Amino acid sequence: MVATKSVVIDHTQRDPWSVALEQFGIAADKLHLDPNMRAILAECQRELTVHFPVRMADGVVKVFTGYRVQHNTTRGPGKGGIRYHPSVSLGEVKALAMWMTWKCAVVGIPYGGAKGGVVCDPKTMSQQQLETLTRRYTTEIELLIGPDRDIPAPDVNTNAQTMAWIMDTYSMHHGYTALAVVTGKPLSIGGSEGRNEATARGAVYTIIEASKHLGIDLEGSRVVVQGYGNAGSFSAKLMAELGARVVGVSDTSGGIYSPKGIDPMRVDAYKRETGSVTGFPGTEKLSNAELLELDCDILIPAAIENQIGEHNAPLIKAKIVAEAANGPTSPEADRILFDRGVFLIPDILCNAGGVTVSYFEWVQDLQNLFWREATINARLKEVMVKSFNDVLDMQKKNKVDMRTAAYMVAVARVAEATLTRGIYP
After folding, report:
1. d(CA 141, CA 136)
2. Which of 88, 102, 126, 216 is the most buried (most CB within 10 A)?
3. Is 366:147 a contact under the CB 8 Å cutoff?
4. CATH label of the domain that carries residue 97
């Protein structure tokens, strides 16, 4: 049986933008960042809000709200996913865009940070409605995107097909096929080998490095994964391949737990058949909140933001928290976990495998020269291992938590690029 766990609801969930600013501020303080530079990097460069009509199946026209935000493009074109979710807000998209700036900088790829989203519930929409919505949204944000300007990618509730619609819409408007306008596309139209698993694979590479640093044997280690979408399911499978024991997983419907271990491949098949992981034979059902507090060695939050706050951080039992999701941990929880000796691999490092292989895809599209999956995985490993050690070195040198260290690495790189370019005009 699962031990008694808190089911306290966090009523103080913060606006993601205020969290992103606080995290930036902590790193800026540690870096003694010049006030002028601080003012530049604390603002988003461009924020586009669009309202557009879509004719629904019953003939009713519904007006949707969408966003595309570019936080900073000093180091290269904007890069960032597009999410479809009822809770999408401008504050959330701004935070995600800022996090993308730091994520690209921490792994050293020549992009700035951007993000997009549409306020909708895709689970209630047909494939045809989603295509119509996507093509109209693309048309509305087209003044910002482009292969050399801002390159969208999949995010929550969007996928390779969504990217194909965006690429096709952009190409139709411009009169030529622009493969490099998005990443995360199907292989048949310029997608990259290894892209589907990239976020999870990158996260697992950082977990391997963290376990070496901490002296934890991954063979037989107990793993819990919150969120069983792309990043979560592949993380569970890859950890199982390394000999770890996956004891708990969850999706939006709830979680499942078995101390004996859960076969991620069988759970994957079960979810495809039933639509959820809950009810998987031989497991105990529990909530997403309870799942986070399970006794385990490695916790992989791979769902959405605001999952670990000051209300439940004291109850986290994992030795390593690997943030495959964006923004799952609040600044207050960061401090609690650090004080308790929990080793956290921050999102801007841990889940940067996705944007790294997106970068590889973009390069391949621009060159019309495609690489084998083994080459992509080897290059991804090289990037993730180096980036982990860059952050770990910063952490040791400044005696700060890993998130602050990752931010210090990233902010310093963006600040240096800004100084080198100068202030126009």
Report:
1. 9
2. 102
3. yes
4. 3.40.50.10860
pLDDT along the chain (425 residues), means of 10: 38 74 94 97 98 91 98 97 96 94 97 98 94 98 97 93 98 98 96 91 96 93 90 93 93 89 91 87 87 91 83 91 90 91 94 95 96 96 97 95 95 97 93
Look at residue 171 and give its three-state secondary structure: helix
Q: Same structural domain for residues 181 and 313?
A: no
Asked whether residue 26 is assigned to any structural domain, the reply reads no
Specify the amino acid at residue 320.
I
Give the whole-angstrom CA distance, residue 7 versus residue 11.
Answer: 12
* Structural domain includes residue 173: yes
SS3 category, 251: strand
Q: Of 94, 115, 185, 237, which is the active-site residue?
A: 115
Look at the alpha carbons of 393, 398, 401, 405 in this order and tell me if their dihedral is positive or negative: negative
Q: Residue 62, exposed/middle/buried by CB under 10 A (0-12, 13-18, 19+)?
A: middle
Token readout for 135 is 């093509």
What pLDDT is stored for residue 9 in this prediction? 37
Question: Distance between CA 276 and CA 267 in Å, rounded?
Answer: 9
Q: What is the pTM of this model?
A: 0.90
Give the helix, strand, coil percentages of the chain, each rounded to 5.
Answer: 45, 20, 35
β-sheet bridge partners, residue 70 = 46, 114
Domain that holds residue 131: 44-189
Q: Domain of 271: which CATH number?
A: 3.40.50.720
> Quick one: tokens of 403?
């998130």
Specify if 246 maps to a domain. yes
Is residue 369 a contact partner of residue 210, using CB atoms and an 8 Å limit? no
Residues 68 and 146 in one domain: yes
Can you tell me the distance from the alpha carbon of 333 to that of 273, in angstroms, rounded to the nearest whole number?
A: 36
